[in-house]
Amino acid sequence: MRIALMVIRLFWIAPYYLLKIWWCGISSKITYEESFWFIQKVTKRANHAGRVTIETYGIENIPKEDGFIFYPNHQGMFDVLVFLDSCPRPFSFVAKKEASNVILLKQVIKALGAYAMDREDIKQSMKVILSMAEDVKMGKNFLIFAEGTRSRMGNSLLELKGGSFKSAVKAKCPIVPCALIDSFKPFDENSIKPVTVKLIYMPPIYYEEYKNMKTIEIAGEVKRRIETTINRYT
Q1: Mean pLDDT within 114-130
Q2: 175-181 and 92-96 as β-strands: parallel, antiparallel, unpaired?
Q3: What class, spelled out in words, does domain 2-233 have in CATH?
């Protein structure tokens, strides 16, 4: 219902937005950063049209230098829109393969140079992880959901998969744990009532802190920090 509300309230300008995002993905004259800022503008308009308020905390925790990875909990289809609305720094993301066939999402994926991961194909998944690591080394920021799929348990987390942290280890980059609260409500609840979603950017974990840890240990520590933060803000 909320997606329908967004479309109805932006119906007069939606074709332009879709065309411009498509053009961002194919034009060599539009930079990655320019694409991001336009997509962020569209996201803010869509969230407002859908009666969703984003409360953001911890912006100061985002590393000053580019080349880091956000690791949030995964609650629902709305999660990426929370980051696109609030993040003051351009970033790309890893989406599930199915999303690459959804109109608008596939245009956003192309415009931001995002990756679509096939969770059933280990070889393809590892290729994405390695490609993302190389991009991060070059100074690009990324978002990946280490749970692998949305929890469907409200503000509770599934186990985080250690393999998702191989990109950070190979890139030797800062890991930024992020806590999403009530992000499942906008799209997973059949309602158009005003809703507030919280996003907390937590202090980064730098390579020196995790270099001697196994990826499964890193996953456990990130999960612990996210759960602690969710409990603090709910």
Answers
A1: 91
A2: unpaired
A3: alpha beta
- Which one, of 101, 103, 105, 111, lies nearest residue 26 by Cα? 111
Q: Which two tokens stand for residue 34?
A: 């320019």
Q: How far is it, in rounded angstroms, from Cα 87 to Cα 176?
A: 13
The length of the chain is 234
| pLDDT of 121 strictly over 80 | yes
Confidence (pLDDT) at 214: 97
Count CB neighbours of 172 within 10 A. 15
Collapsing DSSP to helix, strand or coil, 72 comes out as: strand
Confirm if 77 and 29 have CB atoms less than 8 A apart.
Answer: no
pLDDT per residue as tens digits for the range 136-190:
999 999 999 999 888 888 899 999 999 999 999 999 999 999 999 999 999 998 8
The type of residue at 131 is S
CA distance 69 to 91: 9
Q: Domain boundaries in the chain?
A: 2-233
C-alpha pair distances (Å), 228 with each of 68, 75, 175, 216: 22, 16, 17, 18
The tokens for 154 are: 């409200």
The confidence score (pLDDT) of residue 198 equals 98
Q: Give the orientation angle of helix 32-49 with respect to helix 2-9, to 10 degrees.
A: 110
Q: Is pLDDT above 80 for 99? A: no
